[in-house]
Amino acid sequence: MRFSGSGLTLSATDLSRHLGCRHLTQLDLRRARGDLDRPYRHDPAVEVLQQKGLEHERGYLDHLRDRGLRVQELPDIRNLGATRQALAEGADAIAQAWLSDGRWTGIADVLLRVPGPSGLGDYHYEVVDTKLSANTKPGTLLQLCLYADLLGELQGHRPERVMVMTPGTGFEPEVYRVDHYEAYYQQVKTRLDREARAGASTYPEPCDHCSVCDWWKRCDQQRRDDDHLSLVAGITRIQRNELTGLGIETLERFRPGAAGSRPEAGTGQPRESGRRPAPGPRAARGSVKAAILRDAGGR
Ligand code: SF4
Predict the structure, then answer these.
(1) Which of 207, 217, 288 to mutate to test the pocket of ligand 1 (most atoms within 8 A of CB)?
(2) Which residue of 6, 142, 223, 231 has the fewest C-beta atoms within 10 A of its own C-beta?
(3) Quick one: pLDDT at residue 198?
(4) Closest to 204 (Cα-Cα) out of 231, 186, 180, 182
(5) DSSP symbol at 108
(6) Do 148 and 158 contact (CB within 8 A), yes or no?
(7) Cα–Cα distance between 206 and 219 in angstroms, integer?
(8) Cβ of residue 24 lying under 6 Å from some atom of ligand 1
(9) Chain-centre distance for alpha carbon 79
(10) Mean pLDDT of 74-101
(11) Residue 195: which residues within 8 A CB-CB, separation 6 or more?
């Protein structure tokens, strides 16, 4: 996300990040306004993944060329005029196309030309996203729905399907119908738009995205400063909510037997297990990345 003369613009990446964590959106907003510095992060595992992602995308483009298709690669700049021109020229495939409607933006990995009427003539384009993960994530589908919307505006025809190209499939894409995800996409997009405009009161509740999040250090520090219940090993959000409902909101107040009543849900196991420290952040982050690397065929 970024502020410019025309106001705030939101990207497909913002949509995916918002789905992962609403607090992340609020931190990104503060960074975009200049209230927070961009978090510094040096993470060799992420760099390896990025490199593998680029290689996968290049491999797909080479595969298209080997099939005799004309591939037009656009420079990775925010140039809507270049995208419009490439669409009008009608290459078989367009790589790194900048898409925007003024409020929402994104860069589509690959646009593939297919037959069918549109504002361009007797053809239009569909979007292909190259991804390393063997399992397509909800955030990826939301990004693709946004690309389909933006591309629809540009070519006068909203593509009915989007595709994800994962490794090890012989470049056979997974195909998804956009209308199957329309309601979900609109719901998340509307919420992001609203919370980006009006702000939202959020807390850095631990979630799956924390393991790869730029803001992790800041959020972890806040939880420690707050003596937050998430520091209890193995505790779930439901259990934390239950404890909070009993007035137990900090580690200090979390002691075996400290609360007299039984929880309305769950087994009460965390209270009985005492105050074991949560797993170290490096361990948690490492295990998620190891899974991603396994998916990518790495080590
Ligand atoms: S570290 Fe976790 S809680 Fe904090 S912004 Fe990132 S995903 Fe959200």
Answers:
(1) 207
(2) 6
(3) 92
(4) 231
(5) E
(6) yes
(7) 9
(8) yes
(9) 23
(10) 94
(11) 18, 22, 25, 26
What does the pLDDT average to over 168-176?
93
Tell me if 29 CB under 6 Å of ligand 1.
no
Which phi and psi (to 5°) does residue 117 adopt?
A: -70, 150
- Angle of the 281-295 helix axis to the 44-66 helix axis, nearest 10: 10
Residue 19 in contact with ligand 1 by CB distance below 6 A: no
**pTM for this prediction:** 0.83
Alpha helices in the chain (DSSP H): 12-20, 22-33, 44-66, 80-89, 138-155, 182-198, 216-225, 237-245, 269-273, 281-295
pLDDT-wise least confident of 2-16, 19-33, 200-214, 265-279: 265-279
Distance, CA 19 to ligand 1 centroid (Å)? 11
Note the pLDDT of residue 43.
79
Burial class (CB in 10 A: 0-12, 13-18, 19+), 234: exposed
69: its two tokens: 């298709």
Task: Give the mean model confidence (pLDDT) for residues 115-122.
Answer: 97
- Strand 121-130, strand 161-165: pairing: parallel
Residue 97 Cα to ligand 1 middle (Å): 29
Cα–ligand 1 centroid distance for 34 (angstroms): 19
95 in Cβ contact with 71 (< 8 Å): yes
pLDDT tens digits for 237-282?
Answer: 899 989 989 888 898 888 766 554 455 565 555 555 544 545 444 4
pLDDT at 264: 59
Using the predicted structure, report yes or no on whether residue 76 has a pLDDT greater than 80. Answer: no
Phi and psi at residue 132, to the nearest 5°: -80, -35
Q: How many CB atoms lie within 10 A of CB 60?
A: 21
Structure tokens, 17: 């990040």
Position 294 confidence tier, pLDDT thresholds 50, 70, 90: very low
